[in-house]
Design goal:
Length: about 375
């Protein structure tokens, strides 16, 4: 029997503060609802392919704890629900169509989904009192396989974000913390302890592109914090902090990690690169399609009779236009696949125009005045 699979990634639902990048909630809800009619003819799977929730950048009681316990994750999820009720209500409407399922694939912003109480609470928020329908909400981990299609967020193919699912929930450390916590990659520490403080002050900076040009346009104070302070944070972490807290694995910073981060930092290489790994994984597998997100890019192309489907982010991002001298909002995208066990009948990347306005350089805090920066 044919079914429709809708795939979205990188929605990044936050808690409503300055680090919450899910601005176009209504646009997402309207887009998903525009596909509801397919349930009259097909079963529908909604694959939420990682980074749906932004636990990573969401604060916990005005701070960003290094050790993220299940209790902390539950608090964040509660406040995400309060900040974005429309998102959760739309998922409820979708699941109530009848012949529908929702699949949550884990990404690097929502490792927290691995906690059993987070899964239970998500089912409760979406199903409400219809607990008998709990099998319609699926938590497959880091991959979901559906007929001849493989879905994964992409972070497990990325050297900076790959984790071991079997050890992601780390046992409590009596001398440090009394509860199990997430054993996340070292780079998350730099984000929580240094870069998120900058993002709270200058929330749009992280969402404007191209990154190499934006760095050059930062005013002196912000550039120092983004470049020089980050550089010294890495040096301190490698040569001092990890030895001071050597019993805590979250502080461990290996020589290979140090070289990896420093090489990319010094080369000003800010892009996530794993597309070659995705192609190799697809070509060596039985699948006809691999769908991923993570890099906030979008593409659909065929390679040796198989398809790569790359869906972009649903947070609002902007790109500088030399023609208009403004930052134009980028389009969103999602995937549509009509398939059964034997065949992929239709596959497409559907673009959705942002409803955000263009930004002038003067609208973005942290950039140099236009006379200095855009001659």
């Amino acid at each position: 029997m044919k079914k429709v699979t809708l795939v979205f990634s990188d929605i990044e639902v936050g808690t409503g503060n300055n680090t919450d990048d899910f601005v176009e909630e209504k646009l997402f809800c309207d887009t998903l609802k525009s596909n509801f009619h397919y349930h009259k003819k097909y079963n529908i799977d909604l694959v939420l392919n990682g980074d749906i929730f932004d636990f990573l950048k969401a604060p916990y009681k005005n701070s960003y704890p290094r050790h993220v316990t299940e209790k902390i994750s539950l608090w964040k999820l509660e406040h995400m629900h309060k900040a974005h009720p429309g998102f959760f209500e739309t998922l409820t409407e979708f699941i109530n169509l009848g012949n529908t399922r929702i699949i949550f694939v884990i990404g690097n912003h929502d490792y927290d989904i691995i906690y059993s109480k987070i899964k239970k609470q998500l089912r409760k928020l979406i199903l409400k009192d219809k607990i008998k329908m709990k099998k319609k909400i699926i938590f497959p981990g880091f991959e979901f396989k559906s007929y001849q299609v493989l879905f994964e967020h992409g972070s497990q193919m990325d050297q900076f974000f790959r984790v071991d699912p079997s050890t992601l929930i780390h046992p409590k450390i009596q001398t440090v913390i009394e509860e199990p916590f997430l054993l996340v990659p070292w780079g998350f520490n730099a984000l929580k302890e240094h870069l998120l403080i900058i993002k709270e002050e200058f929330p749009i900076l992280e969402r404007v592109f191209p990154k190499d040009k934006i760095i050059n346009k930062l005013n002196t104070q912000v550039k120092k914090r983004v470049i020089f302070d980050t550089f010294f944070y890495m040096l301190k972490s490698f040569f001092y902090t990890q030895f001071r807290y050597k019993k805590d694995k979250l502080y461990n910073f290996t020589w290979n990690d140090f070289k990896k981060y420093m090489r990319n930092f010094l080369n000003k290489d800010y892009d996530l690169k794993f597309e070659d790994k995705a192609e190799m994984k697809l070509l060596s597998s039985r699948f006809k399609v691999i769908s991923y997100g993570h890099n906030h890019l979008s593409s659909l192309y065929k390679i040796k009779g198989k398809y790569i489907l790359n869906t972009t982010t649903w947070r609002d991002e902007y790109e500088y236009s030399e023609e208009t001298k403004t930052y134009k909002p980028l389009k969103k995208s999602y995937g549509f696949i009509l398939h059964d066990k034997q065949k992929v009948y239709d596959i497409k990347l559907i673009y959705v125009k942002s409803e955000q306005k263009e930004l002038k350089p003067s609208d973005i805090r942290g950039l140099k005045p236009i006379s200095q920066s855009y001659k």
